[in-house]
Amino acid sequence: MSNGLEDVIAAQTVLSDVDGARGTLIVRGVSLDDLLARRFEDVLELLWEGFLPVENLAASLGAARIRVFEQIRSDPALLELSPTEAMRLMLARLPDGDSAETALALVAGPAVFTPALLRLKAGHQPLAPDAALPHATDILRMCTGKVHSQVQAAALDRYLVTVADHGLNASTFAARVVASTGAGLTSSALAALSALKGPLHGGAPGPVLDMLDAVGTPTNAGVWVEEALARGERLMGFGHRIYRVRDPRADALKGAVRMLGAARAINPVRLAVAEATEAAALEALRRKKPDRPLDTNVEFYTALLLEALGFPRMAFTCVFAMGRMGGWMAHAREQVLTGRLIRPKSVYVGPVPKMVA
Ligand code: COA
Question: How far is the CA of 129 from the centre of ligand 1 (A)?
Answer without folding.
Answer: 39
